[in-house]
Amino acid sequence: MKAVRKRGDCLVPILLVGLGVLFGALPAASAPIRLRTIVDEAGLKATPEIGAKSLVKLPLGTLVEALDQKGEWYKVTATIEGNQVSGYIHEMLVEPAEGGGDLGRDEAGGAPSYLAAQIDLKIGEAKEFIRNGQNLVEALQTLDGLLARVFRLEDLKLQRQLAVDIYFWLGLARVTHGDEAGGLRELKKMFEVDADRARVAGRNITQPNVAALLKQAEQEFLGVVVDYTLEVNSQPAEAEVTANGTEKGLTPSTFRSRSPKFIIEIKKPGYKTVRDEVYMASGFERKEYALEVISRSLKLVSHPAGAAVQVNGRDTGQKTDCVLEGLALGAYQIRLVKDNYADWQSPLTVEEGQGPLALETFLAGMVYLPQAAWTAEPEGLFLRPVSIAAGPGGEVFVADESPFKLRKFDAGGKWLKDWTPDQQVLSEFKNPGGLAVDSTGHIYATDIRRNIVLKIDPAGRAVARFGKEGSGPDDFKVPADVAVDSQGNVYVVDWGNSRIKKYSSAGQMIKTWGGKGETDGLFNLPRAVAVGVRNEVFVLDKSRVQRFSADGTFMGSWGRAGAGPGEFREPRGLFVDRAGSVYVADSDNHRLQKFDDKGDFLVHWGGRGREPGKMGFPCDLLVDGQGRLLVVERDNNRIQLFAVPSQ
Fold first, then answer.
1. What is the DSSP-derived secondary structure letter of residue 465?
2. DSSP label at residue 405
3. How far apart are CA 618 and CA 636, in angstroms?
4. Is the distance from CB of 179 to CB of 187 less than 8 angstroms?
5. Distance from the CA of 304 to the CA of which of 147, 189, 204, 537 falls in 20 to 30 A?
């Protein structure tokens, strides 16, 4: 009996003869049987499994030769573009090339083999998406839609086979998509359809999370209630541990769950956080975690270099400049030790972060030896020098009472005679007081007789002047000294009015503070001013040093009248170096004194005389870029240089 079925717009005659009835099990020695594909893109598989890889897609009507039959699969050969290809094809995708019998119909009146083939093709497409981790939502929708069609197949054996395949790949897709609970539901349904086929489908799974879910799905299908117990230990112990988002106390810790999956997080200050996903294959497991110390490196730089490095009182064996590796999180005391310099110490807290830490410091010299003096030739190079300042290029300016008034020297003490102030400067500059040079090379010079401040450009031309004699807001009564901060602001010591006046670089008044008195913030005939590395303002008056913020807020003071350490007699000069050390020219004691920025005494040296190392009324000083100390000696008419001896 013949029948016809509709494929698209074509009516194709077929013989409704069951292939199994026609062939049975083909004997190995029988002659090849000719078959014809009854769907387009029929998959020729590498192995006789629905989920196996397709070697080639065969067009509708392709003739193949069946060599053997294994259950529902035929081992066949096909000729494709002149090449023979061998593989396996499902019995539902082919029919005899000649004759046929009654195969039955699906619910739509078509051949069940055609419906199954179309389902298999769609399953194959979804599998490719899932294997590649792409279009997972589309794959899930495709597989979900195929289930209804599968369960309408009349062949119950094929129905179960395809359903197991769909549920298996639905489970994998949901796990890949991050929905492990949904994946477990799909895998459990797979066992409910056909437990034996489900076990076969999952036997080659190597991913621990999927393997654990397969085991759990089977146990839930069998009605076996399993508690999973996980013990977590850490080295060191007493680390905070959470499991599946719930705090579980300190390690060692044990916890239970109906699920084989545990998301573990272990935290301990000073150690890297551990995050782990555990999929248990048995009812009890123990996990050991060695916590990794969080450490940072520390780059240490000192000026000068060569200082021994101690950490928490222990000698590291390293010297600056160096890098200390592997400092764990926590608090430290860093100490640098170098002969002829004060020990430097700083607390350091190592916290979690990116990149190395860094410390840079300038060491404070404690031993100073005379190196040279600018005075010998020609005789009378200076006439009662009173002030000194360094320019941004290392050049040195000295003011004295000679006809030159203001001279420029190189760092070696050579008088640069091609630089001279213009006539306007010389005519206005009668009795020099203080000197300062800003970062642009502009010179600020005070005249204590004419009560003015001159601003001189790098070429020696006067470009501005401000002030006049008096006690008003714009007046001076003996402007004894001047200093410039890193922002270009100018500070002037108004000696006779016992105050400090702050100006912009253009000479505009910003602030005035002080007044006559002995208490904090007041002055008793202030003599000198200097600005520190943090723009703190230090003011020297008759017998003490006071420290202020840049806006004039009092921050501290030290000193008193006398000849002992930390005591002064008519001090005139003040300087703050890059380390924050404060130098005082203790003029009537004919010596220099050095303090830290808090006023703690460090060292003094000098004494009255002309021989090297002695002094005659030191009245100003500076530390140059080489770390040398240049001291203006009014009574000895010279600049004497001191330096810390090298080791």
1. E
2. -
3. 9
4. no
5. 537
Between CA 14 and CA 24 the distance in angstroms is: 20
Picking from 98, 189, 203, 97, the residue whose alpha carbon sits closest to that of residue 147 is: 189
The SS3 call for residue 168 is helix
- In degrees to the nearest 10, what's the CA dihedral of 406, 411, 414, 419? -40
Gap between the terminal Cα atoms of the chain: 116
Q: CA-to-CA distance for 446 and 117, rounded, in angstroms?
A: 103
Query: In which order are the strands placed within the sheet that holds 618-623?
Result: 369-374, 638-643, 629-633, 618-623
Residue pair 495/479 in contact by the 8 Å Cβ criterion: yes
584-613 per-position pLDDT tens digit: 999 999 999 999 989 999 999 999 999 999
CA neighbours closer than 13 Å in the CB half-sphere of residue 35: 34
127 to each of 11, 62, 193, how far by Cα in Å?
Answer: 32, 25, 20
DSSP 224-291: ----EEEEEEEESS--EEEETTEEEEESSEEEEESSSEEEEEEE-TTBPPEEEEEE-SSSEEEEEEEP
DSSP states along 184-233: HHHHHHHHHH-HHHHHHHTTT---HHHHHHHHHHHHHHHT----EEEEEE
Count the neighbouring beta carbons within 10 Å of the beta carbon of residue 168.
26
pLDDT at 31: 58
CA atoms within 13 A on the CB side of 71: 10
Count other Cβ atoms within 10 Å, centred on residue 325.
10
Using CA atoms, how far apart are residues 214 and 598, in angstroms rounded to an integer? Answer: 72
Nearest one of 602, 534, 573 to 365, comparing CA atoms = 602
Residue 197 backbone zone (phi > 0: left; psi -120 to 50: alpha; other: beta): alpha
Rounded Cα gap, residues 242 and 249, in angstroms: 7
What are the backbone dihedrals phi and psi of residue 563, each rounded to the nearest 5 degrees, phi first?
-120, 0
For 201-226, the pLDDT digits (tens) are 888 888 888 888 888 888 888 877 67
Asked whether 473 and 463 are in contact (CB, 8 A), the reply is no
Cβ-contact 526, 500 below 8 angstroms: yes
pLDDT at 261: 82
Tallying the residues shown for the chain, one arrives at 647
Amino acid, single-letter form, for residue 253: S
Q: What is the C-alpha separation between 83 and 106, in angstroms, rounded? A: 36
State how far the Cα of 94 lies from the Cα of 578, in Å rounded to an integer. Answer: 93
Phi/psi of residue 580, nearest 5 degrees: 90, 0
CA–CA separation, 137 and 300 (whole Å): 56
What CA–CA distance (Å, rounded) separates 95 from 99? 9
| Separation of alpha carbons 193 and 199, rounded Å | 11
d(CA 433, CA 389): 12
Please tell me the pTM assigned to this model: 0.61
